[in-house]
Amino acid sequence: MATTTTTTSTAPAPTAAPPGAPDARRRRRSLSPGRRLPASRLIGPALLLVLWASASAAGRLDPGAVPAPWTVLETAGRLWTDGTLPTDVLTSLRRAAAGFAIGLTAGVVLALVSGLSRVGEALIDGSVQLNRAIPTLGLIPLFILWLGIGETFKIAIIAIVVYIPIYLNTHAALSGIDHRFVELAEVQGLSRLRFVRQIVIPGALPGFFVGLRLGVTGSWLGLVVLEQINATSGLGYLMFQAQNYGQSDVILVGLLVYGVFGLVSDSAVRLIERRVLSWRRTLSS
Amino acid sequence: MAPHTEQLTRPAVRLKALTRSFDGRTVLDGVDLEIPAGQFVALLGHSGSGKSTLLRAVAGLDHEVEGSGELIAPERVSVVFQDSRLLPWTRVLDNVLLGTDGKEAAAKGRAALAEVGLAGRERSWPGELSGGEAQRAALARSLVREPELLLADEPFGALDALTRIRMHGLLRELWERHRPSVLLVTHDVNEAIVLADRVLVLEKGRIGLDLTIDRPHPRSSGDPRLGEYRERLLAALGVTEDLK
């Protein structure tokens, strides 16, 4: 093992900078990816859009399979003005909102009860883990039998898709609260209520927001599936009908609206998260 | 002995035959101790000697620890930990006010922050404070409660040497002004003799040495008259002169 040491003496000393150059000391090469490009998230999608548009304009795409972007926009305008699209969008939004609201409430309440009391944990946690193991969309036939094919079953399925990630992440955050803060609360003589309000809830918020974002995405996912198999109205129904008549532009309009829904709701959650967790910026910056 | 004899009449802390053990291993083996009100006491010991166990017992934080004995501690007790333990999601002033209420609470909090030299930092997040500043905020939080007894578990252990010296001055100054009884747990002999009027050495689960340090403040650790105290303490801790 001593044989390799001889080579080092021949290398020139790297620190021998000329005396007139005080800045000659080299900075180390940065391994971080560097500064963000402006509006970097939009560059990729914009490029795809340009490709799509130019391929359509050049006539390289079969308009029956992939209509041009402007055709999609035209169809969207037509569907909007004749009243089909607003009705379907509203129906879908109402379903998603109702299911999401119920799922959010259930997830938070169950996580709090299970995270704050051992009895609650014994009753709730195992059941939720079991529920998680069953693919929620697999419950659809049973729920149709129980609740009929109306709105109730759709809202129930969306609520289940939403509550699971919210419960799991909030519960994990609650049980992961630093024991040192519990000790501090004891020393400072906090009441149970204040302990929950000032330490447990703020400490669990980061985990809750992870669950919230997953839940929002889940609510759209559930909506798409539900509206395409068992619906007589809504965006998914619109797309399903379009499939029967070979209207690919209408299908794309539906996808576009779903995409906008997803993007807007995710951005909204992120905005709230940044506001509520503003203390975190001081750590990550 | 100390210049404030009139305050030293009633004991703030009394321990009698206090024992604590973890899984059958005895950590405190019948500790007897009285701390008069307003006295500044330092508790020395090897790591694992039970210093923190003693402090946690006095603080009432040892919920699931076996033990027996008599323990009397005042109503208002504050604890300063080795880490500042500020809630990262709460601004500095609200951290200082944690667990206090009342109309004048905010004003008291501001005054406490000013006292530790953090005036103007009320709206900062703990993540924006340096280690020394965070520990000052923790001191302010302990002061706001106007404690009769201040327990400090190696409060300066995580600070750099220069900051630590400054914090020594601050702690002593705050003690002069508010006169709580202080039990300072430390493994630093110099810190103990510079700050405290009485130094205890915990050894084999009991108080092995109880030394009153009768020198005026402010003290400097270079004071030759403190040397003999240092030697006696080091000897009690099992460190002989030639080992240093």
Automatic annotation (TrEMBL), chain A:
Note down the stretches annotated as region Disordered. Answer: 1-37
The record lists the membrane-crossing segments as 37-55, 96-117, 129-149, 155-174, 195-216, 250-272
Q: Which UniProt keywords apply?
A: Cell membrane, Membrane, Transmembrane, Transmembrane helix, Transport
Protein location = Cell membrane
Instruction: Extract the InterPro entries matched here.
Output: MetI-like (IPR000515), MetI-like_sf (IPR035906)
Ranges of Low complexity composition bias in the record: 1-14
UniProt membrane topology term: Multi-pass membrane protein
Q: What PROSITE patterns does the database record attribute to this sequence?
A: ABC_TM1 (PS50928)
- Mainly localized where? membrane
Do you know which Pfam families this protein is assigned to?
BPD_transp_1
Q: Which residues form the ABC transmembrane type-1 domain?
A: 89-269
Which domain of life does this protein belong to? Bacteria
Stored PANTHER family: ALIPHATIC SULFONATES TRANSPORT PERMEASE PROTEIN SSUC-RELATED, ALKANE SULFONATE ABC TRANSPORTER-RELATED, MEMBRANE SUBUNIT
Family to which the UniProt record says this protein belongs: Belongs to the binding-protein-dependent transport system permease family.
Return the protein name.
ABC transporter permease
Q: What high-level taxonomic lineage is stated for the organism?
A: Bacteria, Bacillati, Actinomycetota, Actinomycetes, Kitasatosporales
TrEMBL record, chain B:
Q: Which Pfam families match?
A: ABC_tran
Q: Which residue numbers delimit the ABC transporter domain?
A: 13-229
Which domain of life does the UniProt lineage start with? Bacteria
Presence of keyword Phosphoprotein:
no
Q: Name one GO molecular function term.
A: ATP binding
Keyword vocabulary terms for this entry: ATP-binding, Cell membrane, Membrane, Nucleotide-binding, Translocase, Transport
Can you tell me which residues the record assigns to a coiled coil?
none
Could you confirm whether the keyword ATP-binding appears in this record?
Answer: yes
Show the PANTHER family listed in the entry. ALIPHATIC SULFONATES IMPORT ATP-BINDING PROTEIN SSUB, TAURINE IMPORT ATP-BINDING PROTEIN-RELATED
Please give the name of this protein: ABC transporter ATP-binding protein
Protein species of origin: Streptomyces thermocoprophilus
Q: Write the lineage as a comma-separated list.
A: Bacteria, Bacillati, Actinomycetota, Actinomycetes, Kitasatosporales
